[in-house]
Amino acid sequence: MIDGKKVLFSGMQATGNLTLGNYLGALKNWVNLSDEYECFYSVVDLHSITVRQDPSELRQRARKLLALYIAAGLDPKKNCIYYQSHVSGHAELAWILNCFTYMGELNRMTQFKDKAAKHADNINAGLFTYPVLMAADILLYQADVVPVGKDQLQHLEITRDIAQRFNAIYGEVFTVPEPFVGKAGAKIMSLQDPAKKMSKSDENANASIYLMDDPDTVIRKFKRAVTDSEAQVKYCEEQPGIRNLIDIYCSCTDKTPEETEKEFDGKGYGEFKLAVGEAVVSVLKPLQERFEDLVKDKAYIDGIIKENADKANYYATKTLRKVQKKVGFPERVR
Ligand code: TYM
After folding, report:
1. Is the pTM of this model over 0.90?
2. What long-range pairs does 281-288 form, CB within 8 A, spacing at least 24?
3. pLDDT digits (tens, 9 = 90+) for 273-283
């Protein structure tokens, strides 16, 4: 609790171009929840270097991502929007939590297996202990709730296990966090292969809608989206392509799948795909406009970076000192 409010933490990596999946699965919910909670939204640059990055590109992307959080509707006066690397407590707590996490647990992480397969030439220890750093992010702020897409639920589960294990030894040190997954949009799939999640790192640009795609590109990608020959807009497992498009449509319009089925009853896929594309454009356009305005204002962004890093450091240090004391590190002499 901070000032009588429950705490929310979430983060995003500044690697690759953000997709509609990132927006609908996470960012949109962040905005909806931001009044109710004391919120910390991090640009998780420590996580990014588990995969090789070009340094200047990473720096640029991180700054853009921070601006995007604001453009999406998060007020940086109320929400703590900051770079993970500006708060050393993340790495310090991660080290301690590493000593309370088992190799067997980390071996079971599906994202590690996927990433290790993708980057076979660079299976580094950071990639393996990635979920521990994520646990540190969350536990450092004593977060009650963590809004994420479905692909992060396994990492939330291990975070809870680590917190409970630590608490069982040392008393109630950490708040055990709950994940928050939105009704629609929690797992947006590739437009070219509805069995695969929409991902920043997909090599086929037609598979993903990027948040900065212009309207023509968005409409074109939806027109090319893989569907089936059933020719009916129905929300069912047998039609994963159409189901994904319905999820996207519902998430952008706040309609339900039933309402959508009715709306497009007897209509062709062409008409439906166009409607989905237009719904997405109407969400992305204002976001892109705000983003373009914001990035021009260097002094404003710099001010936010400084102020919010100080705020995040304050709360992070509070938890870190408590944990350091619990595990037996000598007290600091003032
Ligand atoms: P990242 O950067 O891969 O994704 C950011 C958020 O977007 C969600 N997401 C999706 N949601 C729906 N459909 C999709 N296709 C889709 N793709 C991505 C993710 O679930 C995530 O919520 N490890 C995290 C970042 C992180 C973090 C944290 C998150 C680091 N520390 C602490 C929460 C709490 C990651 O790589 O997300």
Report:
1. yes
2. 281/215, 281/218, 281/219, 282/252, 283/23, 283/252, 284/20, 284/209, 284/211, 284/213, 284/215, 284/218, 285/215, 287/23, 287/68, 287/71, 287/72, 287/211, 288/71, 288/211, 288/212
3. 999 999 999 99
